[in-house]
Amino acid sequence: MSVIAGDVRQSGARAEPPTLASTWRAISGVGFTDELLAWPPDVFALTNVLLDRSEAFRFALSPPEGVRWPPAGARDWSDAVVDAGRAWTVWLEDRSDSVPSMLAEEWGVALERADLPLADLAQGRDWRVCTALLALHAMADEA
């Protein structure tokens, strides 16, 4: 089996569907790890690849039935993302403090579900990981 740009090709053995982690590794050659937080453009690239390959960007305009965008509970999602992105930049300059809380929360969701099949993301089956990736993408853009 070889994974090339998110496609699965079989060579004798049963092929595994591409996951968030395997898709990222295929395109970047590196793992889906906390080390990516050290450079916001890496997180931007990661989220861009995953959201693009799965076409999950569309959920920001047309979320799956039964859920909403921006996420429920986010009083002012746009402001929260901007603040988190700016706090991320500050954290990068002085890592004596902990990672900004919104960044840590969304990153934790994405990292925990790194083995999620890309097809599940494409169908919006795991809404929480969809919202995490969209938020991380916006935070990385701001940072």
Describe the structure.
By secondary structure, this protein is mostly helical. The chain has one domain (34-142). 52% of the residues lie in helices and 4% in strands. The chain has 6 helices and 2 strands; from the N terminus they run ββαααααα. The protein has a two-stranded antiparallel sheet. α2 (40-54) crosses α6 (127-142). Mean pLDDT is 89; it is low at 1-6.
Domain count: the total is 1
Please provide the count of β strands: 2
User: Separation of termini?
Assistant: 37 Å
How is the biggest beta sheet arranged? 2 strands, antiparallel
- Alpha-beta content class: mainly alpha
Quaternary status: single chain
Helix share, percent:
40-55%
Radius of gyration: 15 Å
Which ranges are low-confidence, i.e. pLDDT below 50, for 5 or more consecutive residues? 1-6
Mean pLDDT: 89
Beta content comes to under 5%
**Morphology call:** globular
Tell me the strand order in the biggest sheet.
1-2
Structure characteristics:
globular, mainly alpha, two-stranded antiparallel sheet
Task: Please specify the SSE layout and strand pairing.
Blueprint: E1 2-4, E2 7-9, H1 20-28, H2 40-54, H3 77-93, H4 101-112, H5 118-122, H6 127-142
Antiparallel strand pairs: 1-2
Helix pairs in contact: 2-6, 3-6, 4-6
Compact summary:
Strands 1-2 form a two-stranded antiparallel ribbon. It is mainly α and 143 residues long.
